[in-house]
Amino acid sequence: MPFRARHLLGIEHLAPDEITTVLDLAERYVDLNRRTIKRTDVLAGMTQINMFFENSTRTQASFELAGKRLGADVMTMSVAQSSVKKGETLIDTAMTLNAMQPDLLVVRHSSSGAVNLLASKVNCAVLNAGDGRHEHPTQALLDALTIRRAKGRLQRLTVAICGDIAHSRVARSNLILLGKMENRIRLIAPSTLMPSGVKEFGCEVFDDMAEGLKDADVVMMLRLQKERMDGGFIPSEREYYHRYGLDAEKLAFAKPDAIVMHPGPMNRGVEIDGTLADDINRSVIQDQVEMGVAVRMACMDLLARNLKAERGRVAAEAGA
Amino acid sequence: MRITVFQNVRLIDPETGEIDDGSLTVADGTIMARGAEAPKGAALVDGHGACLAPGIVDWGVKIGEPGERHRESFRSAGLAAAAGGVTTIIARPDTHPAIDTPETLEFVTRRAAEASPVRIRHMAALTKGRQGREMTEIGFLLDAGALAFTDADHVVADSKVLGRALTYARSLGALVVGHPQDPALSAGGAATSGKFASLYGLPGVHPLAERMGLERDLALVEMTGARYHADQITCASTLPALRRAREQGLDVTAGVSIHHLTLNEFDVGDYRTFFKMTPPLRSEDDRLAMVEAVAAGEIDVIASFHTPADEESKRLPFEEAAAGAVALESFLPAAMRLYHAGGITLPQLFRAMSLNPARRLGLPQGRLAIGAPADLLLFDPDAPFLLDRFTLRSKSKNTPFDGQRMEGKVLGTWVAGMQVFGGPDA
């Protein structure tokens, strides 16, 4: 099983075979997670620290649970409320934690590239749990696993990504991952929420849901941040829902068996109709949450193996 | 009379655009003759075929005095300049506090003269505290030696304020330096909008923000008849506006930074903050258009925009990190990249780095003509080296060229005929 990465900073650095490795291993953890006794000991004795410089509920819980089920000692720090307010820099915080000898560091930060910066300063494995508008690799991996399970494959699918693409790290990571796995990608958004240079991304670009959703196998909705709703990027919540909110009527443009995804948390009645979100025949939103834990277990397992191997090599060299 | 003769040198003359093998005689700090016999008792400098050019007049250098001497002092900047072949520094007023009163200007002028081996002249702020609200004492500041007036990278957003300042400056013949950028559009931008900024999730500024800024300034110049210089033009889409202004006969010149001529947006790579500049690095197409514009003389001035930043202000996530790079010592080798890539000649480079800035600022430097001040730079355009940022003389080490292969070494620097850098025989 090839997986060569030392850190998981973004999908950009993963090769297609590495992505497949993560997903294959995650399948096994899905089975484990459905048992009553959900415990393995692959991370036994190892320390995982979750550093969330930006508030998060679900991702933080998912990583915490993943670590605990793998037998790691897990500590979660909501750095948003602590030393950063006292003027400590990101690197100082990282160095301090690094001195406590963690093995896995899970980091979320509001600045793009902050996790890359931090990874260059510590000697444990770093997992990016979302940095600014840059990447959110575990979200893309869990989405990929969800799609693969629902569709039976992760190639040659038409995937429509709709909503606030400009500000979304989820969109970026998904775009890269789905592109690497050779899918057809469509981006649908009002032009104010479309990133610049999007034409060079190798995907189709639409500002109309009916055209964009045509014959899609997968419809991926993105969350619209509240602060972007009033006049800044779009005129109003209701106009947005009218033109871009996913309901049964708009979904009818997609393939009859198209699945509906959302990274959560949802704004019901803004980007997605509440009834549709709960429709178990179309919506896989709850599956995404379940896959999240399994994918994060797989990522941490693989990174821990590489870390152990690397430390073994260093020790052997020191001994020789 | 103290006489020095530079023998066996290639004279790079930006005024005539010619390169001649020959010699240059300097007497009492002034160029006295070219190709003449060395008189008895003259000191001889054998160039061994190296290039001799007028010393660089670097327009827009940030020095941390007053306020941020830990980043750069007049002493460290002067030493770095000497080592980089810069014989005149035109310093920016974006200090703490800003250089916006004659008293502050007199203080920094005195400090600079005491501490620096090269000439240091100052620009003064255009508005008090660079706040963009009230104009500074332009008359007093001119008397105290200010060469030009600028708020550096703070754009005077209020057009009425800028218009009045330009009108007042015009009555005194003062030169105003603008930073062409639409302030609202460029607020918060850390990269040029486009594929790179989008993929790396960085807030982008559209290249047209530069043209909008310039168009606004040019309209005010048309209104007031002031003398105006745009500090940095970095996008191809801005050039037509500049051309039009010239065709109209406005008294307008423009500059560009050496970094925008030698690097592009993708050089930022994995969020490397030493590549964060103001304005941000542009696309490769824009870079090439700027090189062409310099060669064609459409852009008058190349400057280093030397901006020292300490490690703490750079070791941050890209968006939060300080912008700017040190460049006094890497200016010449970076410029040699342009020369080695073809498309621009050595006289063209020195026209933009020495002659034009001096001329525009009313200084007698930048020439190899008889009677010009003997501010000279002896260099080998081909000498290769590996740049190690910790060998820089600047107090700050934030150079984007760290670890890169460069060509072009300064062998000696002379200010008013006195050697300020290089061995006794260069």
Describe this structure in words.
The complex is a heterodimer of chains A (320) and B (426). By secondary structure, chain A is of the alpha/beta class. Chain A is 41% helix and 14% strand. Chain A contains eleven helices and nine strands. Chain A has helices at residues 16-33, 58-69, 90-99, 114-119, 137-151, 169-180, 209-213, 237-244, 248-251, 274-278, 285-319, and strands at residues 47-52, 73-77, 104-109, 125-131, 158-162, 184-188, 204-206, 218-221, 259-261. The longest helix of chain A has 35 residues, at 285-319. The radius of gyration of chain A is 20 Å and the shape is globular. The two termini of chain A are 29 Å apart. The model of chain B has no long low-confidence stretch (mean pLDDT 96). In chain B, a hairpin with a 2-residue loop joins strand 2 and strand 3. In chain B, helix 4 packs across helix 7 and helix 7 (208-224) packs parallel to helix 8 (239-247). In chain B, 30% of the residues lie in helices and 23% in strands. Chain B has one domain (55-360): TIM Barrel. With 426 residues, chain B is of the alpha/beta class. The interface between A and B is medium-sized, with 25 and 21 residues.
CATH class annotation of chain B: Alpha Beta
- The amount of helix of chain A comes to 40-55%
Shape label of chain B: globular
Examine the coordinates and then state which fold CATH places here, giving the name of the CATH topology of chain B.
TIM Barrel
Identify the strand order in the major beta sheet of chain A: 7-6-5-8-9
Largest sheet entry of chain A: 5 strands, parallel
Structural class of chain A: alpha/beta
Tell me about the largest β-sheet of chain B. Answer: 8 strands, mixed
Looking at CATH, the homologous superfamily of chain B is Metal-dependent hydrolases
C-alpha Rg of chain B (nearest Å): 21 Å
- Average pLDDT reading of chain A: 93
